[in-house]
Design a protein that fits this description.
Length: 428
């Protein structure tokens, strides 16, 4: 009995020891000032970006826009985001002033928010959406480059997990606050709040010490006799492991991107009272899961490798979709979103890590991240466009099954063709 009683305490001590180990690993080699600056920059950048997307649709609808024009405005941001990621990644690899690139992206996002708040006419909204969408090709690779440049590949797993934690916390908190601002003040207040949040984002960015960001590490380049060595861009296409992993993420997005919009339509069809509040719960729940889980994904990917976690993240998606095919009851929708949070934490963190593993020594890390992001964005756009016709023709139960099949194919691709990418020893 004494041994049995001591077992939970032993497990707790072991878990606490692993957590201390993870925190200790995260402390090196960047200073506490730079680490905290990067933490809060992720938080506030997520705050700012939360003001767009769904809130834009609500805002424009309240301003009297037709559904067709709202669709054009949202599509403009999506297209700009997809187009900007590859050149944005190339720029992030090339320039030495990574913090300056991030600052430019934050300022552009703030200007976009002000344009939306001040003048919701077609031209200004269209310009604002294009500018905001384009920042996906500026801020995202800049954060990746700063993170890798600060800590190197030996600590990027834990650093990426922490980035996702703070970003998810920012998304969840700000979604609630901006929804309240729009409900109790006026709809345009959402975008003034988004613009104002650019100020603390820039302050947090200023706390990151530029002299700690190693240029070669930031682009995942090699070194030979004190010279930075980079590979050819065409070598990325010849990297079969990278191509296969990209194909798996593309299939995952093709299955996943349209699930939440369909869930929202089901809420409306079920005639829930205050459907917007119930919908906000479905949006916030996975962000909370990501905030809790993401650092542990990074930690365990170092202990157990990338592939086992990838199989869990990809494998949950077809299970989630099949669950949703048979019920639209809100408790099951919430379970589905919790599962989405798990897959989001795993695949979000590990996408960065796998790309870092597969581009080691090439100097093309951010370009590769941009290319994968572009492909995923195209897949998500195709998914949301095609799924509406699919569900209209076959109904909910049958409509979900092709999505589950695509998600299962993504899992099979990881199982059969993507081997472990974590190296036995990091070179940096």
């Amino acid at each position: 009995m004494a041994a049995a009683a001591g077992l939970p305490h032993s497990r707790l001590r072991s878990a606490a020891g692993r957590y201390r180990e993870a925190r200790h690993s995260l402390r090196t080699p960047a200073s506490a000032q730079s680490r905290r600056g990067l933490d809060w920059m992720n938080f506030f950048v997520a705050d700012v970006q939360t003001g767009f997307g769904t809130f834009v649709a609500f805002y424009l609808a309240e301003s009297g826009w037709t559904r067709g024009n709202i669709g054009v405005a949202l599509a403009a941001a999506s297209v700009a985001g997809m187009i900007s990621q590859i050149p944005g990644g190339a720029v992030a690899d090339a320039i030495t002033w990574k913090r300056g690139l991030a600052a430019v992206g934050i300022v552009i996002t703030g200007a976009s928010a002000l344009l939306l708040g001040l003048a919701p006419n077609f031209v200004s909204v269209f310009v604002a959406q294009i500018l905001q969408g384009a920042t996906a090709g500026i801020i995202t690779p800049a954060i990746g480059a700063i993170s890798l440049g600060l800590v190197g590949r030996s600590a990027i797993a834990l650093r990426t997990g922490r980035n996702y934690r703070y970003a998810a916390a920012g998304h969840a908190l700000t979604a609630a606050l901006m929804g309240a601002a729009g409900a109790y003040l006026w709809n345009g207040a959402i975008f003034y709040a988004a613009a104002a949040l650019c100020v603390p984002a820039l302050i947090a960015l200023g706390f990151i010490r530029g002299d700690e960001i190693d240029y070669a590490r930031a682009r995942n380049a090699g070194r030979s006799k004190d010279r930075i060595t980079t590979g050819r861009v065409v070598d990325l296409v010849k990297n079969h492991k990278l191509v296969l992993f990209t194909a798996a993420t593309l299939l995952f997005q093709l299955a996943d991107a349209s699930v939440l919009p369909v869930m929202g339509e089901n809420l409306v069809a079920a005639k829930y009272t205050q459907a917007a509040i119930w919908m906000s719960g479905l949006i916030i729940a996975p962000q909370i899961v990501v905030a809790l889980l993401a650092p542990w994904v990074g930690f365990h990917s170092e202990k157990r490798g990338r592939r086992p976690l990838l199989l869990i993240g990809f494998g949950l998606e077809p299970v989630r979709i099949i669950l949703l095919a048979f019920t639209s009851a809100y408790p099951f929708l919430m379970v589905g979103q919790i599962m989405s949070g798990i897959t989001g934490a795993v695949i979000g963190v590990l996408t960065i890590l796998v790309i870092a593993d597969l581009t080691a020594g090439t100097g093309r890390f951010n370009l590769a991240v941009g290319a994968v992001g572009t492909m995923s964005g195209i897949a998500a756009s195709v998914s949301t466009s095609a799924t509406g016709f699919l569900f209209q023709a076959f109904g909910q139960r049958i409509g979900y099954l092709p999505l589950a099949a695509v998600a299962a194919a993504a899992t099979g691709l990881i199982w059969w063709f993507v081997s472990e990418t974590k190296p036995e020893k990091y070179e940096d």
